[in-house]
Amino acid sequence: MSSSLQIILLSRDRPNYLREALQSVLSQSGERIEVIVSDNSDSEDVSRMLATEFPTVRCIRRKPTLSAFEHFRAVIDTATADLLVMFHDDDVMTGGYVHTLRSHLDADPTLAAVCCDATILKGGQPTKERFGLSGRGDIHLHVPEDLLREYFSLSLNGPAPFPGYMYRRAAIHGLCLDPLQGGKYSDVSFLLKVLSRGPMLWLDDPRMQYRIHASNDSATEAVGQRLRLLRYIYASTSMHRRARLVVQYRYRYWASWWRSTSGTQQPWRRRVVRRFLIASTVKYALTRTTLWRRLFTKLGGLLRQIPGARPKDQPC
Predict the structure, then answer these.
(1) Which residues, including other chains, have CB under 8 Å from residue 309's CB and lie 6 or more apart?
(2) How much is the average pLDDT of 58-85?
(3) Beta-bridge partners for 35
(4) What are the tens digits of pLDDT across the range 195-214?
């Protein structure tokens, strides 16, 4: 018999996105699946939409509303099934998500969690662009360095999407997102805690769609919160400040900070960061071909956004 599963959609004031996400979840096949909406909205729009269009779906109304961190903790604390998915209301499951991920957890009782890759939704437009793994094959994570390599390195590939995890409930019992351990990047510290309780598996198989839109929190760089995450990593793993992955991570987030600020903001800091970025860029350009690949990939993306631009092999 397959393990019991709860899919809890974390929702906040986005009834239109939630409708699409919920439809995709309800289309999943399999037994012993309970679907719940955790409505942490300020308005009643989500509750009214659910009552009208999905009257049989259980909804937990959070009143008063909780912070994002408290909401995440509340969902974990009240989960009762063997397995748990905490899905975001702006993402979409595709066919076979439940069957594929649950079959791996049922087959290997040592696994703490399984996650799949995703394709990107740009607003409401589906694309073939992959979120992270991009044809590298399935990845088994056993130690902290396995996870941090995917988040910190200069590789073109990224990590698996955080909303796509299916957890063994026993492996996350008592855990939460801690703002003191990375703020909005505390998904990494959370996953490190899960990994300490058992290995994880990332499937090179896009079984969901991850939506990119204007209100994505990831669009804003927060260096102070990156530093909180690093302090947690120094304290809880064997990784040190001069480790190659840490240096590469600093390069990535300072480059992101540089792009997101204007020349009139914090001019003294921009001068310091500019010197660091120039020196690091020269070093990586000479020693790491992945830097050039990242640069050409970004340039290609920018060119595709220019009106009238097209690949050279397309006919006029």
Answers:
(1) 303
(2) 96
(3) 7
(4) 999 999 999 999 999 999 87
CATH level 3 topology of 5-217 = Spore Coat Polysaccharide Biosynthesis Protein SpsA; Chain A (3.90.550)
Cβ neighbours, 10 Å, residue 261:
15
Tokens of 12: 């906040």
pTM exceeds 0.85 for this model: yes
Tell me, rounded to whole angstroms, the distance of Cα 111 from its chain centroid: 19
Calculate the CA 99 to chain-centre distance.
21
Q: What digits encode the pLDDT tens for the residues 79-94?
A: 999 999 999 999 999 9
- The phi, psi pair for 192, rounded to 5°, reads -60, -40
Q: What is the pLDDT of residues 148-196, one digit of tens each?
A: 999 998 877 789 999 999 999 999 999 999 999 999 999 999 999 999 9
Query: What gap in Å lies between CA 258 and CA 270, rounded to an integer?
Result: 7
Domain boundaries, the chain: 5-217, 227-305
Nearest to 247 by CA among 288, 196, 188, 297: 288
Helix, strand, coil share (%) of the chain residues, nearest 5: 45, 20, 35
The amino acid occupying position 74 is: A
Residues 137, 204 contacting (CB under 8 angstroms): yes
- 291 vs 303, which has greater pLDDT? 291
**Sign (positive/negative) of CA torsion 11, 14, 19, 25?**
negative
Closest CA to 14 of 51, 33, 31, 39: 39
Alpha helices in the chain (DSSP H): 15-26, 45-53, 68-78, 97-107, 144-152, 169-172, 186-195, 223-236, 244-260, 267-287, 289-305
Question: Measured between alpha carbons, how far is 70 from 113 in angstroms, rounded to an integer?
Answer: 21
Sign of CA dihedral 302, 304, 309, 312: positive
Read off the amino acid at residue 80.
T
What tokens appear for 93 in the block?
Answer: 């499951």
